[in-house]
Write a structure and sequence with these properties.
The protein is 70% helix and 2% strand. By secondary structure, the chain is mostly helical. Strands 1-2 form a two-stranded antiparallel ribbon. The radius of gyration is 21 Å and the shape is globular.
Length: 349
């Protein structure tokens, strides 16, 4: 099984190396056309991964999807994937649901990243480099969190109740929250950087570290990277329980997360200036998180109630589509429209 994960990680690293070392070797502002093209490539890669997941589980590659020995399943939930096994078709549906879910949850992450870049006044030409290394760190941290989360849930089934309740609470918190800016003063990592690092307000190209007057200094790109990384950890606390509510099959959780994170960078350059236009996506995410949370809670106490992967896929995809259509069809009020324009000017997007 280690070869399967290693091969997948190697392919992701090759793609990232081509991105940084060939396609974006020189600092430049990413155009909308380029961002759309890269987003399309990431979507194709995700769909290709879904096809591979289908084949791998259909052929039970490295034992994927094989049901446990009945003697080892005594007392387990009869609907547990380890008890029933997982077909290629079901695995592909779970991957697609998880990828769409993680990709959609990254919209809030993109909004915060845009505020972080605005706060640090990161030039557009250098934003790609910060996001690239932010994605690298996110891949490592998500991998660790996924490994720990899936193992804990398998060992302690009652954690499903905790995670389900947490998702419902997160949805309620999202509903009650007012949209706000990035509060730099509340960032512990930024306060630590100011105290312990030789920061300079000057940029030296797209370098994180440079020399000034014979001394090594840290450019604004590095503290911005630190804040982006810690922000992803915060968002992962919400997204990992959400994907575990779809499936606890570690390879599916891992691959769907990696594909969603891989597409985050290009999606940022597509949506950074358009987030206010998709204002109803927030409510779609609230419904999706509530559904997954309630599903985890009810299925734990009532094992026979467990919606199929196709029902979950339909709800997740349908709610996101409804949010996008509503955002495009319902025009904002004149006052809100002018406020949005002013905000876009102030952020320099």
């Amino acid at each position: 099984m280690i070869w399967l994960y290693s091969g997948f990680v190697a392919l992701v690293l090759v793609f990232l190396a081509l991105d940084l070392g060939v396609l974006n070797r020189k600092a430049h502002a990413v155009s909308m056309r380029g961002a759309l093209a890269m987003t399309g490539v990431c979507v194709v890669l995700a769909l290709a991964t879904m096809v591979f997941v289908y084949w791998a589980y259909d052929t039970h590659l490295f034992g994927l999807g094989v049901a446990l020995d009945p003697e080892k399943t005594v007392g387990m939930d009869p609907n547990d994937e380890r008890v029933t096994g997982l077909t290629g078709k079901a695995a592909a549906a779970k991957f697609l649901t998880g990828w769409i879910l993680e990709y959609s949850l990254s919209v809030d992450n993109i909004f915060v990243i845009s505020l972080i870049f605005a706060y640090f006044k990161i030039p557009t030409a250098y934003q790609h480099r910060v996001l690239f290394w932010g994605i690298m760190g996110a891949l490592v941290m998500r991998g660790i969190m996924i490994a720990a989360g899936t193992e804990l849930v398998k060992q302690y089934a009652w954690l499903e109740v905790v995670m389900g309740g947490f998702l419902v609470w997160t949805a309620w918190k999202m509903y009650r929250a007012e949209d706000g800016g990035f509060d730099a003063e509340s960032s512990r990592v930024l306060r630590w950087a100011r105290k312990h690092l030789p920061l300079t307000p000057n940029y030296h190209g797209q370098r994180f570290f440079a020399m000034e007057n014979g001394s090594r200094v840290v450019t604004p790109l590095f503290p911005a990277l630190l804040v982006v990384e810690t922000t992803d950890v915060v968002f992962a606390v919400d997204s990992i329980p959400a994907i575990l509510g779809v499936t606890q099959e570690r390879f599916i959780v891992f691959t769907s997360n990696m594909m969603a994170i891989l597409g985050l960078r290009s999606l940022y350059f597509v949506l950074a200036g358009l987030l206010d236009r998709f204002r109803y996506l927030k409510y779609s995410l609230i419904v999706i998180l509530s559904y997954i949370g309630v599903k985890m809670l009810v299925s734990y106490f009532k094992h026979e109630w467990k919606p199929s992967e196709y029902v979950s896929l339909a709800i997740v995809g349908g709610m996101l589509l409804a949010g996008v259509v509503a955002s495009l069809a319902i025009k904002p009020k004149a006052g809100a429209d002018s406020d949005t324009s002013a905000g876009d000017e102030g952020e320099g997007h």
